[in-house]
Structures are given as C-alpha cells and as structure tokens.
C-alpha cells in the first residue's frame, strides 16, 4: 500500500541531543526498568527527587540539541506529497515544543510523555492511527532506538525506518527486527521518496 503517514521520534531521530543514557539510568538507579516506568513506580519524596534529576539532564540535552542534517528537506518532500506527519516523544512537552519552535518544525500530531502514552508501548502509535483514521499498512515509523521498533511492532506497523550510524557498535540490536536502518536523513529520504 502507498505510504500516507509517518510517525517520527524526536531525540536521536530529527535532532541530535547529547544524552548519556547509561549514566542517566545509573544516576536514577532504574534497576533494569525503563526510566519512565521506574519513575512512575516510586513513592514520594524519592519520585520527585529523581524526576528532577531526569529533568536536569533533559534540560541540558535540549539546550545543546542540533537539527540533523537533511531534516528540512525531508519535511519539504513529505509536505509536497501530502504525507501526514506525527511526532511521538518520551521527552517532556516543554522540551518537545522548545525544539519544534527553535527549528521551525510542525507536525499534524505531537505527543509527549504528559499524554500518558510512552514507547515501547503501542499506545502512542495506535492513538495517531485512530486520529488519522489510517490503516497500519499506510503508515510508517521513523526512529533511532529499539523502543521505537518495539512500539511499532506492538502497534502492528511493519514499515519501520531507523536512523542509526553504521559506526555505532549497537547497530546490531536492530538485526532480525524487520527494520530498515539508514546512516543519515538523506539516505532515509531517498528510501521514502521511492515509497511515495
């Protein structure tokens, strides 16, 4: 089926933001849980203290984030072809809107963690599909992390496009997932242009 919609992740996908996830998880002592699930499971005052730690890291990363090369051209291509676009991020609404404003980006739907729908759950992607009244086969997901792939798979979206450097030793984690992996936004744009 023809591609009619794309759901994008933010950090690491459309912007490069300097997150040191192993350090953050260590500082929060997540014990193997996802960060958001861990924080939500805590009681006060530990919960508020750890949220503050995470928000401090996020603030620094947001202040230092840069737009990935090729994003404006990709967005122009999608707009020219009438492709609907959504942004789904586990980051805060404040940080999402700061980055969208800074880089002059607009999406049809924007979901952040305050919406209560977090990846790797299928929830945020299913919400977008319902809002668009779009079959899964006409939608794709663009992300950079295994959570994006897991959320897409859980939502039954099979067109999964991942931006991940071939120099990154963690790239092998996408093997066997069915995701197509690209080194850059321009390489992704070339593939998307063939789906339109």
Could you explain the architecture of this structure?
By secondary structure, this protein is an alpha/beta fold. It folds into 2 domains: 5-16 and 66-195, HAD superfamily/HAD-like (Rossmann fold, 3-Layer(aba) Sandwich); 21-63, no CATH class. The chain has 8 helices and 8 strands. The chain has helices spanning 21-28, 35-41, 46-63, 71-80, 93-102, 123-132, 146-155, 185-195; strands spanning 5-8, 15-16, 66-67, 84-88, 109-111, 139-143, 159-163, 180-182. The longest helix is centred in the N-terminal third of the chain and has 18 residues, at 46-63. The protein is globular and about 50 Å long.
Strand ordering within the main sheet: 5-4-1-6-7-8
Number of domains: 2
Structural class, from helix and strand content?
Answer: alpha/beta
> Which overall shape is indicated by the principal axes computed on the Cα atoms?
globular
Termini distance?
10 Å
Radius of gyration: 16 Å
The appropriate CATH architecture of the largest domain is 3-Layer(aba) Sandwich
Q: Return the string of H and E elements.
A: EEHHHEHEHEHEHEEH
Summarize the structure.
The protein has 196 residues and is an alpha/beta fold. Helices cover 43% and strands 15% of the residues. It is built from 8 helices and 8 strands.
């Amino acid at each position: 089926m023809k591609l009619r919609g794309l759901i994008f992740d933010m950090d690491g996908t459309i912007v490069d933001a300097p997150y040191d996830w192993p350090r953050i998880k260590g500082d929060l002592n997540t014990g193997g849980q996802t960060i958001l699930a861990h924080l939500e499971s805590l009681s006060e005052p530990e919960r508020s203290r750890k949220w503050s730690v995470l928000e401090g890291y996020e603030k620094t990363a947001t202040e230092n984030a840069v737009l990935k090369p090729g994003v404006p051209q990709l967005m122009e291509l999608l707009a020219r072809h009438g492709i609907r676009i959504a942004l789904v991020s586990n980051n805060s609404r404040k940080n999402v809107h700061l980055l969208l404003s800074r880089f002059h980006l607009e999406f049809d739907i924007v979901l952040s963690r305050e919406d209560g729908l977090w990846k790797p759950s299928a929830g945020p992607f299913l919400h977008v599909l319902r809002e668009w009244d779009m079959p899964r086969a006409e939608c794709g997901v663009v992300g950079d992390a295994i959570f994006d792939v897991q959320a897409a798979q859980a939502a039954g979206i099979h067109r999964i496009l991942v931006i991940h450097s071939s120099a990154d030793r963690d790239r092998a984690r996408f093997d066997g997932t069915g995701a197509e992996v690209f080194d850059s936004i321009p390489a992704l744009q070339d593939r998307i242009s063939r789906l339109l």
